[in-house]
From TrEMBL, chain A:
Name of the molecule in the record: Alpha-D-ribose 1-methylphosphonate 5-triphosphate synthase subunit PhnI
InterPro entries membership: PhnI
Organism: Rhodovulum iodosum
Pfam families: PhnI
Disordered as annotated region, ranges: 159-187
From TrEMBL, chain B:
Annotated protein name in UniProt: Alpha-D-ribose 1-methylphosphonate 5-triphosphate synthase subunit PhnG
Pfam families with a match to the protein in the record: PhnG
Length: 363, 151
C-alpha cells in the first residue's frame, strides 16, 4: 500500500529538537563538555562509536557522542550518515599488525613468549569496585620502565605456526583486493573477507551474545586466547601524485587471535584452527567476540555441521549491524495510522461476518 | 624521482603527517610560500583501511578513516599534504612544507621542523613503550622453602 503524507506536527517536531538541545546541555551552571574531554576521558566510548560507525576519526566520534548524549548506537549512526557525504580517495595498504607499537599484549597459551606478557592499561586483574576518589579530581601518573617494550613483537599464532601445529593463514593466490560492503550489498554465500568486514563493524552486544552462546553449548569450539594485542599501527597510502607509499598517521587497533580445538580432516594431520578479530580502538570484548564468531562461521571449512545460530552466516550477518537493526525496529514508532485503521476495519468485518453466520445457524 | 629522494620524502612526510598545526605554522613563517599554486586545495575524504585474516592471510575491508589532502606547486617542486583526520589547514601547511623541503631552503626547514618534530614523536612513542614495559609480567616460581624467587 502507498504511504499517505500527513501534514502537521512541524512545530511539535522543531520544539522536540529544541528540547533535546536543552536537555543535552544540562544545567548551564555546570561547565559544558569539550570534545577533547570526550575524546580523551571517554575514550572507550569513542572507540566503540568508531568501530560500529566504521569510520576512524576520534574527533568526529567525540562530536557524535556529544550530540547523541552518550548514546553509542545513535552516535555510530551519525558517523555512518556522515561518511556518505565523503568521497573515498583510495584504499590504504593492508595494515601490518606485526608492526604494532605494542601497548598491551597477552597470551593465554604461552607464559614465556618473546616480548613478554605486557598487561598495558588493563583492569582485568582487579576487583571491579567503584572508586569514589574519581568523584573528585586528580592527575595520576603511571611508572615508566628504564627500557621500552620491543619495537615489534611476533604474533603468537605465527610462533605456533612455525612448529607446524597451526592452520596456516596465507592470502589467496594473487592477494586479491577484498570485497567492500560500502560498495556492494551483502550476498550469500558470504566469503570470509565480507564476513570479517561485517563483524568488524557489528554491534558489540550482539557479537558478545553470539560469542558467549558458542561457549555455552550452542557451538562446539573450545577456544584459547592465543594472543590479544593493542597499540598503534601505521597507515600507509600511495597518493596518486607520488606513486610511492607514505605514512599518513596511525590507528589504534585491538587484535584478537583465538586458537580453537584440534581438527583433523580425513587424511590430514590434526592441528589448531583459528578465529580472527580486529577492530578500531581499545576494544577487547569486541575483538575477542569477533574472533569467536569468525571461527564459528567457518564451520563448513572444517566439515562441522552448522547447528547453532552463531554458525549460521545469514542469521549472524543480516542481524549484526546496529544501524540497520535499530532503523527497522524503531521505524515502528513512525505513524502507521492507515495500516492500523485498515487492520481494525478488517477485524470489524470479520466479526460482523461471524455474527451473521452464527445468527443464520441459530434461525 | 630517484629512490634516495623518494625515501627522504617518505621519511619527512611521515613526520609532517603527525605535526601539530602550530609547529607547522611557526616553521613556515620564515619561508616565502606566497607563490605556491594550488593543484588541489585541501579536501577531506576517506581511505578504506584493510586488515588481513589471522594477521597474515586474506585481505578484508576493516573500515574507513577520514583523511585530508592538498597539493601545491612551487617552482619545479610539487608538495603533497596527506594526513589522517579532518584538518584542512594542516594538510595545506604540510604540502607547503613538502615543497619547500625539496627546494634550496630544504635543509634549513628540515633542521628547524623535521628534526625536532621527529625527535618529539620518537620521544612520545618511547614514553608509551616505557609505560607499557612497566606492566610486563615478571614471572617467578614459588618455592615452599625459600619463598618467592626470581626466575
Amino acid at each position: 500500500m502507498a504511504y499517505v503524507p500527513v501534514k502537521g506536527g512541524e512545530a511539535a517536531i522543531l520544539n522536540a529538537l529544541d528540547l533535546v538541545a536543552e536537555e543535552r546541555r544540562g544545567d548551564p551552571a555546570d561547565p559544558e563538555l569539550t570534545l577533547a574531554q570526550i575524546r580523551t576521558q571517554q575514550a572507550r566510548a569513542v572507540d566503540r562509536v568508531m568501530a560500529e560507525g566504521s569510520l576512524y576519526d576520534p574527533d568526529l566520534a567525540a562530536l557524535a557522542l556529544k550530540q547523541a548524549q552518550g548514546d553509542a548506537t545513535e552516535a555510530a549512526f551519525l558517523l555512518r550518515a556522515y561518511r556518505t557525504t565523503l568521497e573515498q580517495f583510495a584504499r590504504a595498504r593492508p595494515l601490518e599488525t606485526d608492526r604494532m607499537a605494542i601497548r598491551r599484549r597477552i597470551s593465554a597459551c604461552y607464559k614465556d613468549l618473546p616480548g613478554g606478557q605486557v598487561l598495558g592499561p588493563s583492569v582485568d586483574y582487579s576487583h571491579r569496585m567503584l572508586d569514589f576518589d574519581l568523584a573528585g579530581e586528580g592527575a595520576p601518573t603511571a611508572p615508566r620502565a628504564e627500557a621500552p617494550v620491543a619495537a615489534q613483537m611476533p604474533r603468537v599464532p605465527d610462533l605456533v605456526g612455525n612448529e607446524g601445529f597451526m592452520e596456516p593463514s596465507e592470502p589467496p593466490a594473487g592477494d586479491p583486493a577484498p570485497g567492500d560492503l560500502t560498495r556492494d550489498p551483502l550476498a550469500f554465500p558470504a566469503p570470509r573477507d565480507i564476513r570479517l568486514q561485517n563483524l568488524a563493524r557489528a554491534d558489540e552486544g550482539f557479537l558478545l551474545g553470539l560469542a558467549y552462546s558458542t561457549q555455552r553449548g550452542f557451538g562446539s569450539n573450545h577456544p584459547y586466547a592465543g594472543e590479544i594485542r593493542m597499540g598503534e599501527v601505521p597507515v600507509e597510502v600511495v597518493p596518486e601524485e607520488l606513486g610511492f607509499a607514505i605514512e599518513i598517521g596511525e590507528v589504534t587497533l585491538t587484535e584478537s587471535q583465538m586458537i580453537t580445538s584440534v581438527k583433523g580432516a580425513s587424511g590430514e594431520n590434526p592441528k589448531f584452527t583459528r578465529g580472527y578479530g580486529l577492530a578500531f580502538g581499545h576494544c577487547e570484548r569486541k575483538a575477542m567476540s569477533m574472533a569467536l564468531v569468525d571461527r564459528a562461521l567457518r564451520a563448513d571449512e572444517f566439515a562441522e555441521e552448522p547447528r547453532y545460530p552463531a554458525q549460521d552466516a545469514e542469521f549472524v550477518l543480516y542481524h549484526s549491524d546496529n544501524v540497520e537493526s535499530s532503523g527497522f525496529v524503531q521505524h515502528l514508532k513512525l505513524p502507521h495510522y492507515v495500516d492500523f485503521q485498515a487492520e481494525l476495519r478488517m477485524l470489524r468485518e470479520m466479526r460482523a461476518a461471524r455474527r451473521a453466520t452464527e445468527q443464520e445457524a441459530a434461525e | 624521482m630517484g629512490a634516495a629522494v623518494m625515501r627522504a620524502r617518505a621519511e619527512w612526510l611521515k613526520v609532517l603527517a603527525r605535526c601539530p598545526e602550530a609547529a607547522l605554522e611557526a616553521a613556515l613563517a620564515g619561508h616565502d610560500t606566497g607563490a605556491a599554486e594550488w593543484l588541489r586545495r585541501p579536501e577531506t575524504g576517506m581511505v578504506m583501511l584493510e586488515g588481513r585474516a589471522g594477521g597474515t592471510g586474506q585481505r578484508f575491508s576493516l573500515g574507513q578513516a577520514t583523511v585530508t589532502r592538498a597539493t601545491c606547486r612551487m617552482g619545479a617542486d610539487v608538495g603533497v599534504g596527506y594526513l589522517m583526520g579532518h584538518f584542512p589547514r594542516r594538510a595545506e601547511l604540510m604540502a607547503l612544507a613538502d615543497a619547500v623541503l625539496q627546494g634550496p631552503d630544504g635543509p634549513a626547514l628540515h633542521a628547524a621542523l623535521i628534526a625536532p618534530q621527529e625527535a618529539a614523536q620518537v620521544a612520545a612513542r618511547t614514553d608509551r613503550a616505557r609505560a607499557a614495559a612497566a606492566t610486563t609480567v615478571e614471572f617467578f616460581t614459588m618455592s615452599r622453602e625459600t619463598g618467592p624467587r626470581s626466575s
